Amino acid sequence: MSNLLAIAAREFKSLFLSPLAWTVLAILQLILAYLFLTQVETFVTLQSKLAAMVNGPGLTDIIVPPLFGNAGIVLLLVTPLLTMRMICEERRNKTLPLLLSAPVSITDIVLGKFLGVLGLLSVVLVLITVMPLSLLIGGTLDFGKLFANVIGLFLLMSAFTSIGLYMSCIAVHPTVAALGAFGTLLLLWIMDWSTAIRDQPNPLMEYLSILRHYQNLQSGLLSTADIGYFLLFSGGFLLLSIRHLASERLPQ
Amino acid sequence: MTLLIEASHLSRYYGKHCAVNDVSFSLNNGEVLGFLGVNGAGKTTTMQMLSGNLAASAGSIRINGFDLQSQAKQAKQQLGYLPDVPPLYRELTVLEYLRYCAQLHGLAKHAATAAITYAQARCGLTPVSKRLIANLSKGYQQRIGIAQAILHNPKVIILDEPTVGLDPLQIREIRALIRELGQDHGVILSTHILTEVAETCSHVQIIHQGQLLLSDSIAGLQQRMGSRILQITTRFPVETAVLMAIPGVIAIETLNNQQLKIQHSNDHNPSQQITETIIAAGWELQELTPMPTSIEDIFIQLTEGHPA
């Protein structure tokens, strides 16, 4: 357990030792702050109409789901860049033997790396959540809905990280790992578009689509099916990573 | 004498290519075992198997009694490994890096600080401990690799070509360090530098094309190979044909009129008869010295018989 945390801590620290983590944090914050302010402005313009509606959407409904939805899309682009080096770079720099000859299991290595990157993404999550919370100065929020969005984005981040980690395990070059992760995520994201166009839902496509599950969580509906999807997704790719690293030792 | 490494019938295939073929050996506490071989002989593959980086295709490894396959954690706890390229995180300082290595081996904070101070002092890293690894020279990076391998005071230390990239002064220091470590640890080092084995090792193994050709102690090796060349100096020129007739003499090399080198067979030492012959002929023997065979001779003799 302490080994696992040591690996996670080093991964987290190393991300901040390169300009990558800082750049990602800065750019994400800039884009999302812009989107946040746009939503706030929309609310201000619509406020009088909304007040007249019975059971109309409140402050939280107007601001939080679009903000977190956009954050999901931006993270889809950014997470593969953060995860691409995880195993790939260790292999290229020949530092993997240090981990493999230490009394550390491959599960520890994979989970440590996973938690390290998830740590950075949690910082992103906190920074995103602080934006709607700042509205408490002059208004009230639906905390249940905000909480559902935070949980949803966290689960989404762990799914992104796990697939990025797996791609980093199998790819020889970090760029290939990033492309692989990005391609797979994009495919899973847009999977239910085709059914939307043809106007006849395909249940399998809908179930596989990440977007669909994320939207369910965003609406404030914490259902076991959606949470289970994300947990299975992350767990599955973590397991694949462990299996892949373990099999590298074996004779081909 | 405790048995630290027990490797039995190790084999490793890369696809159809057999890198290591049925190699068995053992290492006791207090021994420094030198692994000799030309490039591509299977040294690094064997080391990777011993350190748990590669699984063997066949055979088993026990480290200080723990099976590397089924009791991996306990076995690896007893192990310090320096791969052929030192596994360094270039973005960390020396101190941060060693602290991370200590954590990986589960050293408690207090013990880690003491171990790091000790390892840094042993490897001459104290003056650079706050510098970034990326900015240090190759010699320092190699020494950080060694510091990392001895940090947690492991029973078995495996060093893959530890003196590569070091200057002569550092090589001497590292060899002294290895000899010192060999007193209360078991050390395996691989190298293709023959003098290194003669200087630092107590035991030697020669591996060629994945097969173990020789495994012996340095002392035993020298005795076994014996002295096979005699250097002779006489006052007057010698008729080599007369000496050639003596049983056991294989070849005679004339250095000049008075000096000869006589090569003789392993099991038959003809020095007695040579002496008598020279004195009887009145050439006046001045010197008869057995020339020591170097490891180089043995190495070349063993590997040449098996063309790569």
Describe this protein's structure.
- In chain A, 82% of the residues lie in helices and 0% in strands.
- Chain A is an all-alpha fold.
- Chain A has one domain.
- In chain A, helix 2 packs across helix 6 (106-133) and helix 3 (59-83) packs antiparallel against helix 8 (174-190).
- In chain B, helix 3 packs across helix 4 (109-122) and helix 4 (109-122) packs across helix 5.
- Chains A and B meet through helix 1 and helix 5 of A and strand 1, helix 2 and helix 3 of B.
Question: What's the layout of helices and strands?
Answer:
The complex is a heterodimer of chains A (252) and B (308).
Chain A: H1 2-17, H2 19-52, H3 59-83, H4 88-92, H5 96-101, H6 106-133, H7 143-170, H8 174-190, H9 193-198, H10 203-208, H11 210-218, H12 224-249
Helix pairs in contact in A: 1-6, 2-3, 2-6, 3-6, 3-7, 3-8, 6-7, 6-12, 7-8, 7-11, 7-12, 11-12
Chain B: E1 3-14, E2 17-28, E3 32-36, H1 43-50, E4 58-63, E5 66-67, H2 72-77, E6 79-82, H3 94-104, H4 109-122, H5 138-150, E7 156-160, H6 168-184, E8 186-191, H7 194-200, E9 203-208, E10 211-217, H8 218-225, E11 229-234, H9 240-244, E12 249-254, E13 259-264, H10 271-281, E14 285-291, H11 295-304
Parallel strand pairs in B: 3-8, 3-9, 6-7, 7-8
Antiparallel strand pairs in B: 1-2, 1-4, 4-5, 9-10, 11-13, 11-14, 12-13
Helix pairs in contact in B: 3-4, 4-5
